[in-house]
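Step 1: inspect the first sequence and its tokens.
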Amino acid sequence: MRADLNLLAVFAAVAEEPSFRAAADRLGVTRSAVSQSLRRLEEDIGVSLVRRTTRSMSLTEEGERLRDEIAPAIAEMRAALEGVRAHRSDVRGQLRLAVSSIAESVLSGTLLADFGRAYPDVQIDVLVTDEEFDIVAEGFDAGVRLGEVIEQDMIAVPVSDDQRQVAVCTPSYLAQAGAPSHPRELAAHRCIGWRSAPRAAPYRWEFTEDGRDFTVDVAPEVTTNDMHLMIKLARSGAGITFGMEDTFRADLQNGVLVSLLEPFCPPFPGFFLYYPTRRNMPSKLRAFVDHVARHRRSRG
């Protein structure tokens, strides 16, 4: 028989208070609810726990034994709850994050919004950047990037599932220009490229064939450092563009864009929250790391 721990909680209140009414007030329920719960517990275990009269109540010998047996566990649970409350109240300050512009799992907002609601005393400062720099030297608590570019001396925690990069265009462009059968044929198409910074070279599109990775220099007709503009150009039929599948997911699902060269676009490890090894991690960062882990489990 599985014990109802809620009934034990009611009994604990009855054992510590002078009357059913006092126990009911403490629990925020009616006196009748306390009496019914106690009667259910007695029926479940087959013994009488409380002597009841019109004027008073007292524990039976079995009731005293049960009270003494559960008292240490009740104390431990109360201490655990107080510890959580104290930890939550200690989580405060500014949490600075450097997040890649293509980290949809973070920038979609849900993860950060849920964290903000759970820890209202933490101010979240997010820098969206694709520049590579030392987050510690620049005063950031953590960063979010693809796992392949994170330095090995960092602790990395998964923040997304595996990812894919895909080439996409509109159905109208596809009908006009035809579909490339191999990534090297992209050189003959109008392409929309992306660069991380003004002096950086346009991003080279990466594909895989027979287990080997290779890049294609597509010489884009339009290049931008703004991911949203890149997507708008693709939606307007300006040509083929390339990026994370999550970035285009809504447009692919509703048919605004179509995916090309699927056999050359296998999945790879996705985004990670990374931070330096610290013996005494700030409570705000520890809370965020734990939040990321819970968020991934809830989605799994």
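Step 2: inspect the second sequence and its tokens, then contrast the two.
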Amino acid sequence: MEDSELLKVRLGKIADLKQAGIELYPNDIRPQNTTSQIIEDFGAEEAASLSGLTQKFSIAGRLMALRNFGKAAFIKIQDRKGQIQCYIAKNIVGEKAYATFKKLDVGDILYISGKLFRTKTDELTIEAHELRLVAKAIRPLPEKWHGLTDIETRYRQRHLDLISNPLVRKVFEKRSRIIRLIRQFMENHDFLEVETPMMQPRAGGAMARPFKTHHNALNQDFYLRIAPELYLKRLVTGGMERVYEINKNFRNEGISTFHNPEFTMLEFYCSYKTYEDLMSFTEELITFVAADIFAGMKFNYLGTEIDLTPPWRRISVKEALLQITRMEPAALEDQARALAFARKAGCEVKQTDSLGKILMAIFDETVEKNLVQPTFVTHYPVEVSPLSRRSASDPEFTDRFELYIYGKEIANAFSELNDPSDQRERFMQQLKEKETGDEEAHEMDEDYINTLEYAMPPTAGEGIGIDRLVMLFTDSASIRDVILFPLLRTK
């Protein structure tokens, strides 16, 4: 009811402005300055120095606060760079402009042009010589919009979140900076940025449940990609030895503080490297970004200090299970013993699950949360690594690692399987898993096997979760805080 009354008041003001011939949404506004530019250049100037300036300044932004004194007012204007105070006086801007100003509300967008001065409280202020309405806000900002805290409103109406919470804007500015630094690092190491299909005839490149769609003209089902892996490795086979992509993946899975069905990944491939080379490369990449963001190797995430100083801990899946869960060594080799341990630990496992799957279920349930400082976990079972090269020392495990920080997977990498015969066998095993009800099992991809038959050079590849990395580097508790428009149930 209160919102309805406020809306009526605003619509009345709009009618008055129209009757006075005031354009509500002009398109000839050209501000020459930003708030931060003015503050940076003149924030240290004293009042006497400012009074000697003949230069005029012009800004455009949203009216965020208003203190009215009858024939004069102080307001706060917010643009993309910050806020600055402005002084509006009837005897300076003129009666017509001041009459327009009296019809304005918090939330409207204004153009202000004038000179700089300091108030009695020593605040840098623009004395308005010209004032124009740029865009009239029909709807009022929500109640208590200063530091909007309602989570539902923040995520569903990100525009209000950005207006109300300057720190939110900083998070997404930092996100952009992180991605820019990653691109710079990859270019410095001779990687070529590419784009691969978002819609794919079969879901491949990872073990995950896909989103399915239909192309009418081709009368064919397609899948939103769960990973770009198989396409990027086609490029490697074609001679593009160092490629990367930063783009969206889609997985039809649950939503949590660390999972969104649509997420951003960096995925890259480098010929004549191994997963061990990529561990060092990953350290270099992430510390390169951290050095710029934090000017150092240490930062706090949710109250815990994280130290990125290399070298990072390296431990195999088996070693982690022995050290953290206190499993008996014999249970690592015996399906029945591993199954009994998993059920005792509360893991969701089936009687028919392979030993490798059971070990990873135990790992996910008991080990991950203990990996707070940067840790490379290596040598994953073949059953959960259908695209990874087998370990020469233990063929039941693969030359693969995952990077964990604060108990969460940040990166996944491995020496790529480039033997087409072995790859076919892995796909066949995945098909069997799918037939038993595993919706995340990998599909057969004859075209990809055909690609490998033309010989792919020895290659290592990696995927890094951009959203999760941004979460760490912005001290954000939820992935929704670092995605501008997270997926939500429709109201």
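Step 3: confirm your contrast with the notes below.
The mean pLDDT is 94. The chain has two domains: 2-140, 164-312+373-481.
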